[in-house]
Design goal:
The chain has a domain of 120 residues. The protein is 57% helix and 8% strand. The longest helix has 19 residues.
């Protein structure tokens, strides 16, 4: 005879029935009965928890100041490349780690701008600068393609806006600038110039709106190129290979080398190409030193 359930047991059974209707439980059932998954329920639950957390972040929230931030009016979630997800040769965007960021698509500043006369160009520029700064503050980078989609204009227009903003002195933390993906103006010159003027990493980071890690990476790359140059490795192909930098980036660091270092290299080239000049500087001639005359043929002396 089956012992009847107590009131508490009945209540717990009802609770389990309701919980078993959850998305988590539905996915677990699919894993164990439809997907051919054979690693066990515990591992399946861990995977499901990670998937659900990813979905929450993708659609609903993003991390701002280490706090979950729900969307407000005028905001949207956009997927961007993390600052520390560096590009590699033949690495496609599908192979690149992404993270969600919250962007203010419509801000109070935009509304005020519209109230004082609608100038679409200046409004787009303000939005563009705001979005790249917001993404960067959340540890991610927007591309010009991202900005093109967000603004509803073509790539060429975005490139024009970026150049106009940067020509006024504000360097935008786009992915092309931070990860050196284009020939656009980058932060390299500003960061390395400050470094050569003996500023410390924290000061440079503040002045250039960069993370300390990014500043240190620029400095490390610069030192690799500088060290190779000091050891008379000045061929661009060799520098690119040994420093693991693209030719374009390697050349940018070469252009930042101190003038004294470049002059020393040029002086060595002159000495190598003109050995006569080198001999002349030491007071020597092809025949011997200035104080010694070459020995004459003894037969000529007797004549």
């Amino acid at each position: 005879m089956i012992k009847p359930l107590s009131k508490e047991q009945v209540q717990l059974k009802k609770q389990r029935r309701l919980r078993d209707k959850s998305l988590e439980q539905h996915l677990l059932h699919r894993f164990l009965n439809h997907y051919g998954y054979d690693k066990g329920e515990i591992t399946a639950r861990a995977i499901i928890d990670d998937i659900l957390n990813l979905i929450d972040h993708y659609f609903l929230v993003s991390s701002i100041d280490d706090d979950l931030h729900h969307l407000h009016y005028g905001q949207l979630v956009w997927m961007a490349v993390p600052v520390d997800e560096y590009p590699q040769r033949a690495k496609s965007i599908s192979q690149t780690r992404m993270k969600p960021v919250v962007l203010s698509f419509l801000s109070d500043e935009d509304i005020d701008h519209i109230a004082h006369g609608f100038d679409s160009t200046s409004l787009r520029k303000k939005r563009l600068a705001r979005w790249v700064d917001q993404a960067f503050d959340q540890g991610a980078l927007l591309t010009q393609l991202d900005l093109s989609c967000l603004l509803g204009v073509c790539d060429a227009v975005v490139s024009k806006y970026v150049n106009e903003i940067q020509s006024s002195g504000k360097i935008l933390p786009t992915r092309g600038n931070i990860h050196d993906l284009s020939g656009a103006i980058t932060h390299k010159r500003e960061i390395i110039t400050l470094y050569l003027e003996n500023y410390l990493t924290p000061e440079i980071a503040i002045k250039t709106n960069h993370s300390k890690e990014a500043v240190d990476r620029y400095i490390k790359d610069y030192h690799r190129v500088e060290t190779l140059w000091k050891h008379d490795i000045t061929d661009l192909e060799q520098i690119s290979h040994l420093s693991r930098l693209s030719k374009n980036v390697a050349q940018q660091y070469i252009d930042l080398l101190p003038e004294k270092l470049l002059k020393n290299h040029n002086a060595k080239l002159v000495d190598i190409e003109n050995p006569i000049n080198k001999l002349g500087k030491s007071g020597e001639t092809e025949a011997g030193s200035a104080g010694e005359q070459p020995a004459r043929d003894s037969r000529k002396q007797n004549e």
